[in-house]
Amino acid sequence: MELIPKQIFFTKGVGIHKDKLASFELALRKAGIEKCNLVYVSSIFPPNCVIIPKAKGVKLIKPGQITFCVMARNETNEPNRLIASAVGLAVPKDRGHYGYISEYHSFGKTARKAGDYAEDLAATMLATTLGIAFDPDEAWDSRKQVYNATNYIFKSTNICQSAEGNKHGKWTTVIAAAVMLL
Length: 182
Fold this sequence. Notes:
Elements: E1 7-17, H1 20-31, E2 37-40, E3 44-45, E4 50-51, H2 54-60, E5 66-76, E6 82-92, E7 99-107, H3 111-130, H4 140-149, E8 153-164, E9 171-181
Parallel strand pairs: 1-4, 2-5
Antiparallel strand pairs: 1-9, 3-7, 5-9, 6-7, 6-8
């Protein structure tokens, strides 16, 4: 039995509630995946997988469906604490080869910084499997140029959700996910 996803979409959400679990549920609702039985998987973007828009992906999900995803999740009940969850993606030019999806959770980082970090992480994992030489201490923007110049990495991107903890101490949950469809 092969469980290789054919399609994938990216989504994000934030939820605020007095209860931690309800906060997570509200974040799932914002992301459009609350009706799924989510199974967390690791970081491989399947060969020949097609990225589809969130709106199309959400329509393909049936209530109760077992749904595989790479998810980043973070939560706080500390007022005004900045949290972020990001998923990064790196897809090789050769679509018959697998790519990488990364998840990243942070405190105190903006959405842009957390998203860039997740994207860098995915691209770095892909670059190492492709044998691309790079300086890991170099800034992300510089490495991104090196990756693009090699013609091995076709695309890298990220999706990130950030939020400040609710000022009244309610639970704030942020999620970002790559949702895989068979």
